[in-house]
Amino acid sequence: MVQRGHFIDTRVHLRYAGIYLFSYLLLTYSVAYGISAIEAQNTFANYVLTLCRYDAEHYRQIVDFGYRNTKLQSTVVAFFPVYPAICRAVVLATGLPTRWAMILVANVCLAGAVIVLVKLLRLRTFSDPMYESQFRIYTLAAFLFFPTALFWRMGYTESTFILISLLILLGFQQRWKPLPLAVLIGLLTATRSVGIAFLLPLAWRLYQDLKAKQLSLWQIPILLLIGCWGLLAFMTFLYIRFDDPLLFITAQEDWRIGDPAAKPAKWFSLLTLYPVYSVYAPSSAGY
User: Please, which of 18, 172, 187, 189 could form a disulfide with 195 given CB 3.0 to 4.6 Å?
Assistant: First the structure.
């Protein structure tokens, strides 16, 4: 006899799967509708091409050609290597066209991120079971239907980044050992540079373990260094290939819209959040 609790649990999981499936169908229809309004033919190839525009094209260059030592190609070092490396592995293993592999990797990472997110949500408990259920469903819906969630399914690094980020959050929530947390954070720093922000909660966790005498003082700098291994490895590669370990920073200038700003003006624009609101200002070059 099937217990009622098991039946309810299955029903909840089907509801999660339904939200994910509906978000996928909605995106597919939206992109297909957009193609039909612009292109003469609404084909699968056009669909894949639509999801691999702009920055995705630079990731495609990295997957196909790597970080080549030319002035033109040196600008793509602003894009970090984990996502294109996974896509390259898929291309070699399956023989898929590069863009198809990029979309496949993005969507598999998104599916994994949804699974980890549901696991995280199930760790949150509330006194009211009805509120608890609604909290999980609405959070998942917001994650999948927010307008910028489109990038989860494109040939971008976002879905890879969010999957690893959620795994790290799950590790903190479940009190994983510091070493696997540091390794994951290091991997995240090679996915996007902002992943280094996770070093702060890692340092706090190490401090707590030190107070609880679960960790020795000499282990802390080693674990923090491991938490940067991806970024350090990428910088080492840039030094060997381009003789500039910070090229991923200086290459950002090649993507600037408008005239390069002097350092005082640059700091002022950052403090006033100009990069955020400039896209809404008609007088801005980024409007």
Answer: 189
Which of 13-27, 43-57, 91-105, 145-159 shows the highest mean pLDDT? 91-105
Among 29-33, 139-143, 164-168, 202-206, the least confident range:
29-33
Helix extents (H) in the chain: 4-38, 44-50, 55-65, 71-74, 82-94, 98-122, 129-145, 158-173, 178-189, 199-211, 219-226, 229-242, 247-250, 263-271, 274-277
Contacts 24+ apart (CB under 8 A), 256-259: 257/285, 257/286, 258/284, 258/285, 258/286
What dihedral do alpha carbons 210, 211, 212, 218 form, nearest 10°?
Answer: 20
Write b or e for each residue in 226-247: b if 16 or more Cβ atoms lie within 10 A of its Cβ, otherwise e.
Answer: bbbbbbbebbebbeeebeeeeb
State how far the Cα of 82 lies from the Cα of 99, in Å rounded to an integer.
16
Nearest to 201 by CA among 217, 229, 223: 223
Average model confidence (pLDDT) for the chain? 83
Residue range 258-281: average pLDDT?
65
Q: Name residues whose C-beta falls within 8 Å of residue 174's C-beta, 6 or more positions apart in sequence.
A: 123
Hey, what are 64's tokens? Answer: 């196909």
pLDDT at 70: 55
In this structure, what DSSP letter does residue 280 have?
A: G
The C-alpha atoms of residue 257 and residue 212 are separated, in whole angstroms, by: 50
Among residues 160, 172, 173, the alpha carbon closest in space to that of 227 is found at 172
CA distance 266 to 286: 15
